[in-house]
Write a sequence for this structure.
């Protein structure tokens, strides 16, 4: 860590990195620099409010740096009448940003787990997805982070995560392959060891294979 990045009293800090955050004014100045770099005039009327709007957008896109996904899974329910089958939440909308180009990754996340005596509210699964998605990501890391966090905190008999997504760094720039989606999966515990359990999850999300 460089000394000039260390947090001084009164300065905002990133929970995820422990590094100091620049001020809003510095962030807006950086947007004006990029507008000039693109070839336009940040002083013209149509662009006057743009740095402010871009910075606000970043607050939404990257809100995950202020959230701890582990906290979201602390509340669980044990009165489940012995339910011990797969729980799956499919088609969770994914909105993330690729860490190489900072452009959108848009797709779907399917999450499953095999409970061991306790379950978690299903909205919490979607919140965990959102917390990791609202950071700079690559799809492989996102898939693993969601699965590993569910496994560590809930300690179920297994976790399955499948992500299908289009990367705008591939669809709107570079090779311009508009119809390509990327599929990643992480299978832990019973979903990794037991073909029957894995097939059951895949059929629940409408796939026959990965
Ligand atoms: Zn990219």
């Amino acid at each position: 860590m460089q000394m000039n990045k260390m947090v001084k009293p009164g300065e905002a800090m990133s929970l995820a990195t422990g590094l100091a955050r620049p001020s809003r004014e510095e962030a807006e100045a950086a947007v004006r620099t990029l507008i000039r770099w693109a070839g336009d005039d940040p002083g013209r009327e149509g662009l006057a409010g743009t740095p402010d709007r871009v910075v606000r957008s970043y607050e939404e896109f990257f809100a995950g740096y202020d959230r701890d996904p582990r906290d979201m899974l602390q509340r669980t329910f044990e009165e489940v009448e012995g339910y011990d089958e797969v729980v799956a939440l499919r088609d969770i909308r994914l909105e993330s940003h690729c860490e190489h180009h900072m452009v959108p990754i848009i797709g779907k996340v399917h999450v499953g787990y095999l409970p061991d005596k306790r379950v978690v509210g299903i909205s919490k699964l979607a919140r965990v997805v959102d917390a990791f998605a609202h950071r700079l990501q690559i799809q492989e890391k996102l898939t693993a982070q969601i699965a590993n966090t569910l496994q560590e905190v809930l300690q179920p008999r297994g976790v399955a995560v499948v992500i299908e997504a289009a990367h705008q760094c591939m669809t709107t720039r570079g090779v311009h392959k508009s119809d390509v989606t990327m599929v990643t999966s992480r299978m832990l515990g019973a979903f990794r060891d037991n073909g029957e359990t894995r097939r059951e999850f895949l059929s629940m999300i409408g796939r026959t294979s990965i």
